[in-house]
Amino acid sequence: MEHESTKDTKLSTPQAILIGAVIVAAAIFLVKMPARPATTNTDPTTTDTTKGPTADKYANMILATKAKITVPEVTATDHVRGASNPKVTIIEYSDTECPFCRVFHTTMQSVMTKYDGKIAWVYRHYPIESLHKKAINESAATECVAKLGGETAFWNYIDLLYKTTPSNDGLDAAKLPEMAKAVGVDVAKFNTCLSAKETLPTITKAISDAQAIGISGTPHSFMLVGNDMYKIEGAMPIASLTAAIDQILK
User: Fold this and answer.
1) pTM for the complete prediction?
2) Cis before residue 219, ω within 30 degrees of 0?
3) Model confidence over 36-57: pLDDT tens digits?
4) How many whole angstroms separate alpha carbon 87 and alpha carbon 226?
5) 20 to 30 A Cα–Cα from 108, which one of 15, 41, 79, 118?
6) Domain edges within the chain
7) Measured between alpha carbons, how far is 9 from 249 in angstroms, rounded to an integer?
């Protein structure tokens, strides 16, 4: 996500005249320049074989970010799905009401199927309240489910949540206890947990942790392989993500 800031400036009269003259001169120069043919690329799957080890330019973008691991290590408090001794671990920072996160969640489900036994998926909360007012409460709801039903219930719940929400604060809050019941959690205990904000401190800490490592948008993921780390920014197409994984697993 881009951030734009403006600063007030005050110019003296001679400075203003000089800047105005430069602008006029630049405009005359641009008018005299011959027109260049416009180039557009409307196909996001266009490949580029000249700038990396794969035929997919987005996979090459991932591979080009290789660095030593700087993301916080995976601990027993994390939500982890997949292999217990993975060759690749993908840590995702996500917002339940982000439409791109919803797309990437489906992508990751497919990745887990394709690389069964080789991949671990770590889900970390990063609800961005300035964009999605409902996301913090929904994140807290998933933690209530985890508290009451364990890891299997958590993952089943978050799968159902992403499948159900239309994104951008479109999920009816009344659906939260209904989904908790669907994954086998006691609704009365769930409602008590959520209304008492029992798991809100967990979400607040998750937000602080994400901000501390400079994440400003979602989904934002890191792929860990041994002591190396690769960045996956945004809802990377599945073909590109799998191309990068295939290259790493060679």
Assistant:
1) 0.80
2) yes
3) 333 223 344 444 444 789 999 9
4) 8
5) 41
6) 57-249
7) 54
